Amino acid sequence: MLSLSDVSVNYGVIQAVRGVSLNVEEGEIVALLGPNGAGKTSLVSSVVGIVPVSGGRVTFKGEDITRVPVEGIVARGLTLTPEGRRVFAGLSVAENLRLGAATRKDPVATERDLNTYLDMFPILKERYHQTASTLSGGEQQMLAIARALMSAPTMLMLDEPSLGLAPRIVDRIFELMLEMKKSGLTMLVVEQNASEALAFSDRAYVLASGSVVYEGAAKDLAASDQLMEAYLGTGVA
Amino acid sequence: MEYVIQQAINALSVGGEYALLALGLAIVFSIMNLVNFAHGELITLGGYAMFFAAATFVGNPVLLLPICVLTAVVAAMLFERIAFRPVRNAPATTGLLTAFGVSIVIQNALVIFVATRPKPVPVPSWMQGTMSFGGFNLPVVQILETGATVCAVAGLVLLLTRTNLGLAMRAAAKDFTVVRLMGIQANRVILGAFAVSGFLAGLAAVFILARRGAVDPLMGFTPVLKAFVACVLGGFGSLLGAAAGGLVLGILEVVLQATLPSDVAGFRDAIVFLLVGAALIWRPTGLLGTRAELGDKE
């Protein structure tokens, strides 16, 4: 579904991503792991068009989207919940969700999706008219995910959805991702929380200093203390 | 008593005018971090549109009013498309210099191709009269201006809270990247902001021109300066701050005008700016401004 070949991202003279090739098949959850500064955020940001791709090719559903502006990529069904959630703090939960669906032309289906996600994230229903800035970190993360889903994507990239959240909330968010997978959503998840992410992912890529150093089945990586130690510096999962 | 009421409505209308102009500056600034110093030229262009329309094909002066507003809207959108879009991703100073450039080009084009001397702008005669309001005689233009400001601000609030474009503009003021991640076209949001700022400038222009009765190439400078001061006073980037700053500035001017002894009245603007300066020492971010919060990571 999403395919990167030899993708590089440069910031001036600094090369954040060096020739990464990566595939995500339809219906999969793929984890993108690696230490801080490995280039994970730069990579997903370049895929969705927030930062320019310096080299290589990105295709989505067989179409080259390397140079397509971000609005066009979202319109094709690929979106990102950015690192740090970045909900619109001054706007209400309702307004955030409405903006998520701003470009949709099918009011009936939009309304149906809204109700689906409000059932899936009941806390958002409860806080529907509250300003997003009054939400807790976990609630904001759920809002960010629901907001992204409101654009009716076929593939969602999540950048550090567990960042700064309490373990119980993290578990809840990962559960929700499995639910979304069941409803047919394809996901690429950037995580530092490797062992947790591997538990619900199908495959994993490990990025270090801007390059892919490991790719394989999530359970193989999780099962090998040696690999975990070597790539992620976490001996015991 | 009549004098007090007259001065009060005068203060409201001047404050309203500054609020309209300041809101126009602020809405563009909040989204693009651009102080559009060519904002005053929208007033000038609206005035010239009225002058030319009256001189050629429009007999009824009432029709000149929408022509003025429409010209300002179109001009603001053209500014965006031609001048500001190419430098959108450049550093903020480039945008600022571009704004000055637009302003200078328009002023000089008008000097060269039209005239340096003021041209008369006909406005409906009833706008220049007075009307009796609860037993007091008040200038029609001031009552209309106060009313128009209230309506425009109410309309703006509706736009910003009820429409997707308005929501996107509010969101874009905080985090433009994420607005684009919602699939919303950046170009449309920015063009929309310029159109709104043009509309507000055009509305203010109608009243400025009704008072002056004439248009000249350099007339946009003072209003944009006042709008800028109003924005700074209210807190740059805050729409509510811009409206409040404009209102406070207008009221301050009128109150000083009415109360200062005649031998110091000439220093009115100096005194106003002194007070604004003092207010900024007391609140450096402006009356309603807040310190920008920095995110963890872009």
Automatic annotation (TrEMBL), chain A:
Pfam families named in the record: ABC_tran
Domain ABC transporter: 2-234
SUPFAM superfamilies: P-loop containing nucleoside triphosphate hydrolases
GO molecular-function terms, A-Z: ATP binding; ATP hydrolysis activity; branched-chain amino acid transmembrane transporter activity
One of the protein's GO biological processes: L-amino acid transport
SMART domains associated with the record: AAA (SM00382)
Record keywords: Amino-acid transport, ATP-binding, Nucleotide-binding, Transport
Gene3D superfamilies in alphabetical order: P-loop containing nucleotide triphosphate hydrolases (3.40.50.300)
Family statement drawn from the similarity comment of this UniProt entry: Belongs to the ABC transporter superfamily.
The protein, known as: ABC transporter ATP-binding protein
Organism: Acuticoccus mangrovi
UniProtKB/TrEMBL annotation, chain B:
Sample GO molecular function, one term: transmembrane transporter activity
GO cellular component: plasma membrane
One GO BP: amino acid transport
Family: Belongs to the binding-protein-dependent transport system permease family. LivHM subfamily.
Domain of life of the organism encoding this protein: Bacteria
Predominant localisation class: membrane
Compartments it resides in: Cell membrane
Keywords annotated in UniProt: Amino-acid transport, Cell membrane, Membrane, Transmembrane, Transmembrane helix, Transport
Membrane topology: Multi-pass membrane protein
Membrane-crossing segments per the record: 18-35, 64-84, 96-116, 136-160, 189-210, 225-252, 264-282
Alphabetical list of InterPro entries matching this protein: ABC_transp_permease (IPR001851), BCAA_transport_permease (IPR052157)
Protein name: Branched-chain amino acid ABC transporter permease
